Amino acid sequence: MTAARPSRKKAARKAPDRTPTRRPRKTVTVELAERSYPIEIGSDWLESIGRRIGQRLGAGRIALVTVPTVARRYAPRLTRGLTETGARVGRIVVPDGDATKNLRQVGELYDRFLELGMDRHSAVVTLGGGVAGDLGGFAAATFLRGIPFAQVPTTVLAMVDASIGGKTGVNLAQGKNLVGAFHQPAGVYVDVDTLRSLPRRERAAGLAEIVKAGAIWDEALFRWLESKVEAFLDLDPKVVIPTLEWACSIKAEVVARDEREGGLRRLLNFGHTLAHAIEAQAGYRGILHGEAVSIGMVFAAERSEALGFSRPGVRDRLEALLRRAGLPTRPPKRTREAYLAALAVDKKKQGDTVHFVVLEGIGSAGTTSLRPRDILPRGWTA
Amino acid sequence: MTAARPSRKKAARKAPDRTPTRRPRKTVTVELAERSYPIEIGSDWLESIGRRIGQRLGAGRIALVTVPTVARRYAPRLTRGLTETGARVGRIVVPDGDATKNLRQVGELYDRFLELGMDRHSAVVTLGGGVAGDLGGFAAATFLRGIPFAQVPTTVLAMVDASIGGKTGVNLAQGKNLVGAFHQPAGVYVDVDTLRSLPRRERAAGLAEIVKAGAIWDEALFRWLESKVEAFLDLDPKVVIPTLEWACSIKAEVVARDEREGGLRRLLNFGHTLAHAIEAQAGYRGILHGEAVSIGMVFAAERSEALGFSRPGVRDRLEALLRRAGLPTRPPKRTREAYLAALAVDKKKQGDTVHFVVLEGIGSAGTTSLRPRDILPRGWTA
Questions:
Q1: Model's pTM, two decimal places?
Q2: Do the Cβ atoms of A170 and A101 come closer than 8 Å?
């Protein structure tokens, strides 16, 4: 049995320069021809971010879509910068939490856009984690058939994952992200100081996605994390900025080669098959996405060894790093049947089999098509 | 004062072959690189259309989105063809009328898609006029971030206008088509026999958009209509098929050169500035879109003469043809102030001025930016 290995000859990507300067700032470009955009990463520069976005969008009116805690802390500085470029900025605060990502909320955003007098020359800026980005991005994608938007992610997860690739969307009662659009942002702007107000547990959950990038794509990043995991979680800027840059450049490279999710981009789903099942089982409460992905990755590595895709030891090395980040690595105790039922959600989206991402070694992955009962073989227990 | 004339060197387009065969069938290709698609026009071939769409989409499950009258008459034959290619077809009948084109109805479509077990390999087929196409198309554009769809338009308007260009969307309480997405269909398939059940008044309203195509782009089409308008409304297939082909080829050419609505595609808004105001004033009741466009075109031609863009006589020639089609050409009696208020809707979408399409002669148009009070100058009366 062999895994399908999407063509993924890696570009001769220079290892990021990790020499700290007084105020380091890094830029990763997501190459998508005329839809290319920059991810700019720095610290203590929210007001400058506002100016940069204002200049880039050149919009007369801007709706700033954000969530309560973030709005209080960071919206004033960002707004000041945006306003300096002549934009009229209206702040729209949506309740945080994945339950907010629904069609009703999108409808309310449209209403607010119209109240703000927004037209085709207006734009949206999202400030927050995945909820602000996905919801605000989807509203931008569909208001007047699409207006520009920029993202200012304030969680590790949103910085390295949700803000790259142009996926926007909302949940339905029947499942997560069942509705959406591909809509590339005009730019993504990261101020790592916004992570100071992020609970350590959420920093770790975001780090799970960075570990994933190393595991599927780049052993050097994985080794870097093995030496820096604690410094990252403590938000040492000499570690955080280059780590985010590295992770973003990997995701940007994958997305650039496969904007609409053919084979290559599927590798990013490493660990997500079981993660989705765990989240669905939990009703999306009590467990963070990155925590579920951590568990799902260790599971996928275990299955990769069992199915003969990888040599022994890969799973252990992965689990050790995730544990050091304080992440869970074992699935909640439930019956195999319960997990199989939860896998049916992915199955519904993909047909009879599920694209399962297998690890071949640290830094190398592929996909294979499996039926849910082969993913969770008879006798498997959580 | 000169109108901005978007670069619009017309391709050396061969006049369509109008020699009738026993069962003529015409194809117009909308050239959009990897998103190119055919518009196929024929008669008495609904079941074949089903087979063609089924083969083209290659989808396991198809949601057929349609409206009540059309569903009864035409869905069975179309479904038979689709089913022959192995697709499982679920019929979704939505209430007809523009009031149905709303977010709540889109939400219901998503629910039905999930009930039908639709996944990324499923597709949508729309059967009906603009409501079925816009609503079903928007649901297809956003379900699972976009699944393929094909259109089977059954009104003249949908055949030559709504089904070409990939505009999908719904209305908000605040205005028409304020939400939407560009989503190109996999193909558009026309059976002119479906027009037999369309009231003559609606045939004429659709013809208004064909007159528009001739007026802004192609005097030869305009002359053809001057000699065939009654035969078209009587649905003589020797006239209807080549006329639809001709009108579609013009719109396809415009869309191909300007997929996302820059300058050129704006010409298609000829007559629409006042038309939108008339429709908004009427609360979208009692007047068909094509009727409002007919009035708006004569108005725009009149203003084009008054502003010195066109020579005298153009307006009269346009009005004469529209009258022969039985279309209204004079705006409902309302005050200038009422019309100015209604124009504010377009203004909201575009900024302080409105892109107003002016006619320079039959077959030639341009755009100019005007403030509403210059479009409807002091002293103007309906």
A1: 0.88
A2: yes
